[in-house]
Amino acid sequence: MAKQMSGLHESFRPCRDFIIAMVPLIGLAAYLYGPRVLILFGLSVATAFLCDLIAAVFSRNGMRVSDISSHMFAMIFTIMLPASSRYEIAVIGTAVTILLGKHAFGGYGNYPFHPSAFGFAFASVCWPETLYNYPASFSDIGLGLESGAKMYSAAASVLKHGGVPVIETRDLVLGNYPGPMGTTFCLIILSCLVLLIVHGAMTWHIPFMYLLTCSAWSVLFRRAPFGMAESLIYEMFSGAIIFGAVFIIAERTTAPVNPKAKILYGILLGAGTMLFRTFGAFEMGVCFSVLLVNPLTSYLDKKLAPRGYKIKGARI
Question: What tens digit of pLDDT does each residue of 61-92 get?
């Protein structure tokens, strides 16, 4: 019994690592935007727990206390919201993420696409004006049902509509500009990427090829009168490209297993992200790219596996 419980705990170890990696991002978001951030995360995590409980009751399989994946998915969903989001968006979006994105397909590891990407895509369609306008750092964000904060378009939105973002390069790199509450701290997120790879929570193949593809696209297809370096910085450090590379696309249960498949998977996700950012209705292209490419995971694993290579069990 003890050995069985140990194996179960190890299966959720990557979830624990991702949650720990998000803690500094949440702390910085609370520092820049105030206590409303912590309330949003509290509501999301509580909703995730309640959804797990509901799913356990209806499935009659019991609730696995060690399954912390729902908390991880709720945090990833919430960290992509504006700090001024209404509370019901965090609750409803998390419920869709956990109940429809995770449990409707049979629970942890059985879903065809990343639950957080599914939940955020749903929220984008339902509340586009709310999700894609953001408060400035250190602005007065109220704690009521409506935040009362002054809202601004994100740099990624300005690029999408052919404009030139009026953000200093230093502020862009440091994440001090209006955007999703926890995805703008790109240097810290890249540090998390290194730590997660070293700790074995992911491999380098998918995030590296994804970022390389997005970088190449931003240089080859510049959307504003920038030089190559400026275009690269504005495209890569605005929106959620780097955050998605670390916390969404490389999640083990939805990613391919063999290295060749991972490389092609990262390239496809990068191209899809930039296509959605450029031509889609919303600048958060990574979530929609995930919904498009995730179902190809098993196919890529099968077609690109070395001769005699067998895929065993779930990808955890």
Answer: 767 777 899 999 999 999 999 999 999 999 99
Q: What is the structure's pLDDT at 253?
A: 85
Band the pLDDT of 308: cuts 50, 70, 90.
Answer: low
Region 2-304: CATH code? 1.10.3430
For residue 53, give every residue at least 6 positions away whose Cβ sits within 8 Å of its Cβ, in sequence order, or none: 63
66 and 8 in contact (C-beta within 8 Å)? Answer: yes
Helix (H) or strand (E) holding 135: strand 134-135
Going by pLDDT thresholds of 50, 70 and 90, the confidence category of residue 314 is very low
Burial class (CB in 10 A: 0-12, 13-18, 19+), 54: middle
- Helix residue ranges per DSSP H, the chain: 2-11, 13-33, 36-59, 69-79, 87-95, 115-126, 128-131, 155-160, 169-174, 186-198, 205-220, 228-237, 241-247, 259-279, 285-293, 297-304
Q: Could you tell me the CA-to-CA distances from 69 to 19, 50, 64, 205 in Å, in that order?
A: 9, 13, 11, 23
Which residue is it, tokens 């609370």?
30
Q: Helix 87-95 crosses helix 36-59 at what angle (to 10 degrees)?
A: 30
With left for phi above 0 and alpha for psi between -120 and 50, is residue 200 left, alpha or beta? Answer: left
Report the candidate in 36, 135, 138 with the shortest Cα–Cα distance to residue 90. Answer: 36
Residue given tokens 């895509």 in the structure block: 121
Residue boundaries of the structural domains of the chain: 2-304
- Residues pairing with 135 in the sheet: 151
